[in-house]
Amino acid sequence: MAVLKFQVFDESLLRIKLDSRSDFTPPSEEIKILRSSKNIFPDQSDVWFSDLYARTKFLERGINRDLMSKFEDFTAKVGINNAKEWKYVLKHSHNWGELNWTREIAIFCFDFLIDAIIKYQGKDYGVRQKWIIEKHKIRTTDELKLYNKNHVLVYTMPKGEERYASELSRIDDKWEIYDPNDRFLSLYNVDDDKKEVWGYFDEGEENKIEFLETQRFTQDENGNWSLINKTNK
């Protein structure tokens, strides 16, 4: 039952947190430490917040947080072994033992879990959101400088350089830039698709970026990305 709870409430978001392909801004030092850990549990770090606990969804869906805590007291805490291809690891509290392995507790845990899963499915909501991310192949028409948040130069793209990039303020082939944080660019190597540079460009510098190709991806409930379409400019 503990593994089922983990799979429903925690696993999807944990996969996203640990997947560097989900980074569209520079990962924090806490995220880097989390990803380098051998065994990872949902409540291990302040950078990890379960989709259930970090938001108000469990309140909106009528899941009793006190009963959730009681369930967690009686069952194992589930995490993953980050070194062994997503192998589940179980950690038990000091209350784990035969004294608590009663029919009454087993029925409580079963009833609570089934009720919470049904409520968490959100069947009352008739729509589901699809995550859509675009990755572009770009070329600079003039020298383009990228800075960190303190406006310290981190990279200079020479004129004519081609890179793969993600640009969240580029929507339907148009720029939507309303404040300095929108002028953010993530660059990848063309050859190995490895993310290499993050940075902000100055106002008006977006006119130096030419878009050669756009790939659109969507994400399933397990955090896996798949290609929707690819267009050439």
Distance between the termini: 51 Å
Give the CA-based shape: elongated
Total domains, how many? Answer: 2
Approximate strand percentage: 25-35%
Mean pLDDT: 82
The number of distinct helices, counting runs of at least 4 residues, comes to 6
Class by helix and strand content? alpha+beta
Tell me the number of strands: 13
**Secondary structure: helix percent:** 10-25%
Order of helices and strands: HHHEHHEEHEEEEEEEEEE
C-alpha-based Rg, rounded? 22 Å
Uncertain ranges: none
Describe the strand arrangement of the main beta sheet, using strand numbers: 11-10-7-4-12-13
Major sheet attributes: 6 strands, antiparallel
Overview of the structural elements:
This protein has two domains: 2-120, no CATH class; 131-232, no CATH class. The model has no long low-confidence stretch (mean pLDDT 82). The radius of gyration is 22 Å and the shape is elongated. The protein has helices spanning 2-9, 11-18, 29-36, 57-60, 65-74, 103-120, and strands at residues 39-40, 77-81, 87-91, 131-140, 144-147, 153-157, 162-166, 170-171, 174-175, 184-188, 195-200, 209-219, 225-232. Helices cover 24% and strands 30% of the residues. By secondary structure, the chain is of the alpha+beta class.
List the SSEs and their pairings:
Layout: H1 2-9, H2 11-18, H3 29-36, E1 39-40, H4 57-60, H5 65-74, E2 77-81, E3 87-91, H6 103-120, E4 131-140, E5 144-147, E6 153-157, E7 162-166, E8 170-171, E9 174-175, E10 184-188, E11 195-200, E12 209-219, E13 225-232
Antiparallel strand pairs: 1-2, 2-3, 4-7, 4-12, 5-6, 7-10, 8-9, 10-11, 12-13
